[in-house]
Amino acid sequence: MDGIIDLTLPVKKHWKWMFNVTVVLDHRRGDPLIDEMLYMDVHSFTHMDAPFHAYDGKSTIDQVPLSDVIGEAKVIDLSDLEANTAITADILEQNGSHVTKGDIVVVKTCQGLKQNWENPEFWTTSPYMVESAGKWLIDKEVKTVGFDFPQDYVIRELFHGKIPTLDDMIIHKLLLGADMVMIEYITNMHLITTETFNLYAIPLKLEGISGAAARVFAVP
To answer: If pLDDT is split at 50, 70 and 90, which confidence band does 160 have?
Structure first.
């Protein structure tokens, strides 16, 4: 890696998420500055989930220590997986023997190379994590997990108007219940070719909120 690698999706209009920009001041029409009002879900695009996302009384995004989301990250490289593969504990064990207690872990599938994230196929053909994989991460006692794919199978059911239960969203249930931080929808992981890298995941400091958009990047 010769320079900083941006692992963040661009924030723009997308069929999956609420997103709207209103221009409230515009120097092109005579105002002194340009200023925009942004409306979007805090759990959209590249973002972070705090444990409060699933559990009352647990940490909100402003309470997540930056030391949990900045530092050396261990890559579990699953980029050879075929579409719709269930990621099990055995798969993580085969590819993640270097993971140890207290690590930041990024599960890499390179789904963004196989399908464009702006198309439904990205979401409906992705590998996904099953219960045993979540328990494997808990047993390893990692503190933060990042994903470049939709980690729960039922996320694809949101496209049909169904809101899954927390029991259905088993990875969210397990990891957030174990006080882990989740970094969702990282991109460009194909540019990370090493087993470890220096990760910076910087969320907005939104007081009392369950998650936040994040700028995520790798530094050599």
So the answer is: confident
Q: Which residues pair with 72 in a beta bridge?
A: 198
| pTM of the complete model | 0.95
| CATH number, domain 5-219 | 3.50.30.50
- Residues pairing with 36 in the sheet: 23
3-state secondary structure the chain: CCCCEECCCCCCCECCECEEEEEEECHHHCCCCCEEEEEECCCCCCEEECHHHCCCCCCCHHHCCHHHCEEEEEEEECCCCCCCCEECHHHHHHHCCCCCCCCEEEEECCHHHHCCCCCHHHHHCCCEECHHHHHHHHHHCCCEEEECCCCEHHHHHHHHCCCCCCCCCHHHHHHHHCCCEEEECCCCHHHCCCCEEEEEEEECCCCCCCEEEEEEEEEC
